[in-house]
Fold:
Amino acid sequence: MEPVLSVENLSVRFPGRAGDITVVDDLSFSLEAGRSLVIAGESGSGKSMACQTLLGIAPGSARVTATRIGWRGRDLQKLSQEDWRGVRGAEIAMIFQDPTAALNPLITVEHQIVDAVRAHRRCSRDEARARAVEVLGMAGFPDAAQRMKSYPSELSGGLRQRVAIALALANAPSLIIADEATTNLDVSIQAQIVKLLRELQKKLGMALIFVTHDLGLAAEIGDDLLVMYAGHAVEYGPARGVLADPCHPYTRGLLRSAPTLKSSRDNPLVPIPGQPPQPGSIGGGAPFRSRCPVSVAGVCETARPGWSEAGPGHLVACHRFAQDGRRGLP
Amino acid sequence: MNAAVSTSAGVLEARNIVKTFSVRREGRTREVRAVNDVSVAVAPGEIVGLVGESGCGKTTLSRIMIGIEQPTQGEVRYGGKPVADRADWAALRRSVQYVFQDPFTALCPTMRIGKALAEPLAIHGLCAPSERDGKVARMLEMVGLHPDVARRMPNQLSGGQRQRVNLARALMVEPKILICDEIVSGLDVSVQAQVLQLLLDLKQRLDLSLIFISHDLRVIRYLCDRVLVMYLGEIVEQGETASVFDNPRHDYTRTLLAAIPDHSRALAAMADNA
Structure:
């Protein structure tokens, strides 16, 4: 199947005093319609920045380069501002982490969705209002026709996030990007929202990119999983394959440092030693080398690891894995 | 020292705490019961987990236990005696310290780390001013930071480093009990594991008791000996962590457990389907 989105060699740099600071380095991935991709990584890994470039909303000082950002037969890099307006919010929509900041506090929910619909489609307010009721209903917003007259401040965090989802759905996009969309919510609300996104994505045949730092969520929502570290993709493949058989020392470290419902002190967590590198300090070597327990002396300092295949569609960027396979892993 | 005496001397207890807040909405005043007849006790060396969703009253309860909030009804007892007047509270705060949720707002942005850490020593008059710098340096090392951090400002530190500083500041007065309110929820997973490990290590070395508040049941499961599940201001279930998690009795506990994203469970479910 032809992917709807194919990102090839995407890099994002910011000008710094001592030269450019690279926050996303040579990132490639693709996504088919109706599939979901989880981008997992810790703060500073570049996951949000990568997503922002897909919407053309990276900060103005960012230098975005890519061989190609293919979107339904077009290259997003070549879009004019005018063309972007037809893509952003219509073909590609985003759900942000903080629904309170994403919604306009001064106008009602109804008003915001009607505006979003009419920004992309010539229709009457009544038609747009009907669409608002429809998408709010899809997003599980109760009693939409009445309660959409509320202001965001009158709603709970969970309901606000449902409004943000309805806004994203308003123009029937082909891709929804959810950037830490459940991080601020209570666990039971988070579970509801994740389930809802998954159902909507399957039902409407949308592609979904779900950005999270929680690998537990990755297992529940993703068909594919891309693990990022310090701006680099380090492991990529089917979520199930990657989580059942993680092959990058960083992914393994993350999984071992994250408590699960089965963990106890008898089986201590193993923290990853050290701190993530400062953006721009990686140079040409393996991004994880400074914290890696199995780095290859003389190689990891100088050479960027390429992809090795660890299973069907399961790719790992690690010199140690390339050299010794699974028996070399920590 | 007699073991029985030390046991009762170390216990922090909240008995039948009720806390109501008045809320004005649409011109009418309404009473909201944030905490409704809750009792908690922590024994020496114990880690007690307090878990529940936002608004369930877990933070209010913990703030009452250190006297930041006054209970509407009920009493806080320390070492077997009720904490009644200002002198009692002052004494309690030497033994019970609070670590706040947000490592960014908990530190004064214009105060160097060394000064922030020395302040509790000055407030409680614990040592001669000349000894403070040495104590600060030793404490920074104990929480895994370089003593040079004392010269830094908070904005020069990462979230994980700040949370270590917050822990260090709470430990300066050599408390017996730490109340930790969501102290790892803002941290990245790899840093979170470091801080959890540090907490366990400090507990061992300093013989601390902990009240650990979190909404993340995975962290509670890992860390705590005993857990109390709060819902709408009440404790709906409590017991040993392992038995509560493996055998939840209350529906709400089950709901919470089912809502936790967990890769071990998700993978097990996938394996079952395959």
Observations:
- The two ends of chain A are 36 Å apart (CA to CA).
- Residues 3-91+173-328 of chain A form a domain with the Rossmann fold fold (CATH 3.40.50.300).
- The first helix of chain A runs from residue 47 to 54.
- Chain A has one domain: 3-91+173-328.
